[in-house]
Amino acid sequence: MNKDYFVIVIVILSMISIVGYVHTTSSFSNYVFGEILNKAVLNQDDGGSIQKSKTISEISEDKIMDNDTTSQFKRAPEFQKIEGSINTNDSAPISLVSLKGKVVLVNFWTYSCINVLRTLPHLIDWDTKYSDSGLVIVGIHTPEFEFEKNTDNVKSAVHKYGIKYPVLQDNAYGTWNAYENNYWPRMYLIDAQGYVRYDKIGESDYGHTEKVIQSLLNELDTNKDIKNTDNDIFSYYTNSNIIQNTYKNNVSSFLAQPIDFSKIKTPELYFGNQSSRSAIGNPEGLHLGQAINYFLPSSSLTSNSSIKPNTIYLEGQWKNNPDNVELQSNTGRILLSYSAKSVNMVVGVNSSDNSQNQSQVTIYEDNSLISDKSKGIDVKNNSKFTIDEPRLYNIVNHQSYSSDNRTLLVDIKGKGFQAYVFTFG
């Protein structure tokens, strides 16, 4: 190796070190206890959409309890461009400044995301157990789909799931961008001085998150020793006056089901061509703004061999919208070969094309009406259900995972039916 070559190598290595240092120190999420709290493992489909997040967190409790090291933490950004609020006092808009002296859990969510919905029982449980001790949860509702910007829709979801803590509408992504966020769900824990002390991406690891909450609350009053009360995580759902009827109890049971991500072989599947993520496999393709006549592959209803797994097939005339496909004919069908325990659909109805503002849906699986033991919580005894508002509907809920793919057929009656995404559990 000659001298000039050696010098060039040294220069290149030095530049790499500098770039790595700048990248590491500039990231918002790295302002944590002098070490990396979270390692997010993001499983993506070929289109790059995030399917689920798992977090492995390792933290030293003595660093949580250290009040003299706040200089190493990032100050939490103020809530920005908020367009509406729920469960708040309108005469006194909620802000981080107004919450100084409290432990604040900022939770980014959107009401039609299954990954988000599975976190809600835990958030509600923490709100119930720790609000009197100084914890304030603030839900930042940043919409994924256009219908999630509607205040009435968000209010309906807040009531449906029994959320009592404040929810702020972040329709313009002002607060989302201020926090440099890219995920649903994501939780930030902010201490009484306004510093970000914990950053959690995705589902799971609830026990560890609760310990961080307890430690930050203990910083407020060293005379108290807040510990896990070991309540049933879902006791709020089962005992609340809000949730009494059978359907809502079924919702809580569904959200409480354990999920084995390693056994879910089908990723999220989007219908619209937003961000080029559409999973539609018909040869007719997608053409934004156009109404296309789609046809199911021949023999697809009797044999899986003619369709690709994890691919959506349509029948009927469908308009291609940016974030959904919309049924233009009076009837239509959707076919999918999938591998998971449960199947959800985010769907709605375009009321301008449907005077009744409803669509009727029948669910078939493996060439038969879906059985009572496998139907989702939104499906009635006759394997049918009605779409009457835009939201996530659980249409299949098997008792266990299977190594084999299942064939799902969704039969729709009602022009204006809009399909956004399939999600799985």
Automatic annotation (TrEMBL):
GO molecular function, one term: oxidoreductase activity
Domain (Thioredoxin): residue spans on this chain: 70-218
Listed InterPro entries: AhpC/TSA, Thioredoxin-like_sf, Thioredoxin_10, Thioredoxin_domain, Thioredoxin_ResA/DsbE_sf
Domain of life assignment: Archaea
TM stretches of this protein: 5-23
Keyword vocabulary terms for this entry: Isomerase, Membrane, Transmembrane, Transmembrane helix
PANTHER family named in the record: PROTEIN DIPZ, THIOL:DISULFIDE INTERCHANGE PROTEIN DSBE
Protein name as annotated: Thiol-disulfide isomerase or thioredoxin
Organism annotation: Candidatus Nitrosocosmicus arcticus
Taxonomic lineage from the root: Archaea, Nitrososphaerota, Nitrososphaeria, Nitrososphaerales, Nitrososphaeraceae
